[in-house]
Amino acid sequence: MKEFLLSLPEGKEPADFTSVEFEHPKGKPVTFFCSESELLELHYHSPRIGDYSSFVTDEDQTTIQTYGILKATPFDARLILLAQLEKIKDEKKSASIAELKMPKRIKTVALSLSTEKLEEMFNLSDKEAKRIEIDEKKLFENLDKRLKNVQEAILKQKIMDDSNKDKLKRYSARVICDALPKSTTKAYEKHLGIEQTAARIEAKENEPPTKRSRLDEAPTEDYSNGTPLKAMAEVKLTKKEADLKKASVGTKSIMSFFTPKKKN
Q: Spans of biased composition, class Basic and acidic residues (predicted)?
C-alpha cells in the first residue's frame, strides 16, 4: 500500500467510517466512506494529471498511481437513490430503499435520511417503508437551488463575471451534473435550455483514451477556491494515466486535492 495523507471533514474520525466501493451515479466505480448516517466520497489529486474524484478499479483492486493527498468530502446519498431508480424505471416506477440494490453500508446511510429530506427530491408513496418515486418537478426544483448556489459561489470568488450569463449557466450546470446519472443530466440540461451540452459531454466520453482534451469542452477551474486547474492538453500522458483520466469523466470534484494509495 502506498503512503497517503487523508483529510476528513472537521470533527470526523477515520474509525467512524468504512470504505465501500460502489457505482457513482455517472456509472464509474468509486470509493465511498460510510458511517451509520453519512456518506463521504474519496477524492485525490495527481500532480501530473490534475484533480479526480474517483479511484480506478482494475481487476477488483482500487489503485492510485502517484503519491499525494486524499480528501473525503460529503456526498448526497439521495443522488445514489436517484441513480438506482433510473436503472429500474422500465420495470417499476417506485421502490422502497430497502429493496434497492446497494451495499449494506450505503443502504444504511440512505435509510437514515428523514422523510423530509427524501421528499425534497422524490415522491413518497409509503413514508414508513420509505418507498420513493422519481418526481421530475421536485428534482429539478432541488437542482435549481443547487445551481443558484454554485453560480453565487463562482461570482463571489470571481472565477468569472456575470456579463455572459449563458456561459455562467453552462459552467454551473456542469458542476451540478457531475454527480447526476447520465439520463438525468440530459433531462436537466434540456430543462435549462442547454441540452446541446449533453451531446458534447457524451462525445467527450467516447473519445479514445489517448486523445487530448479540447479546452473548450469543459471548465478548467476548481469552483471551490477559484484556482485554475492545469490544462490537460499541456500534459503528455502515459497510457495508464490516460485511462485514469478517462475513468474520472463526469465526476470532477468541486473541492478536490488528493493522493495515491493502493487498496487491497
A: 201-217
Helix axes 182-192, 165-177, angle to 10 degrees: 160
Q: Which among 63, 60, 57, 19 has a CA at the least distance from the CA of 41?
A: 19
Give dist(CA 25, CA 78) in Å, integer. 10
Mean of pLDDT values over 104-129: 95
How do strand 131-134 and strand 227-228 relate by DSSP bridges? unpaired
Quick count: other Cβ atoms within 10 Å of Cβ 113? 19
Q: From CA 85, how far away is CA 80, in angstroms rounded?
A: 9
Using 50, 70 and 90 to split pLDDT, how confident is the model at 29? Answer: confident
3-state secondary structure the chain: CCCCEEECCCCCCHHHCEEEEEECCCCCEEEEEECCCCEEEEEEEECCCEEECCCEEECCEEECCCCCEEEEEECCHHHHHHHHHHHHCCCCCEEEHHHCCCCHHHHHHHHCCCHHHHHCCEEEEECCCCEEEECHHHHHHHHHHHHHHHHHHHHHCCCCCCCCHHHHHHHHHHHHHCCCCHHHHHHHHHHHCCCHHHHHHHHHHCCCCCCCCCHHHCCCEECCCCEECCCHHHCCCCHHHHHHHHHCCCCCCCCCCCCCCEEC
Task: Report whether pLDDT(126) > 60.
Answer: yes
Q: Judge whether residue 174 has pLDDT over 80.
A: yes
| Cβ within 8 Å of residue 198, ≥6 positions away | 185, 186, 189, 190
Cα end-to-end distance, the chain, whole Å: 8
Global pTM reads 0.66
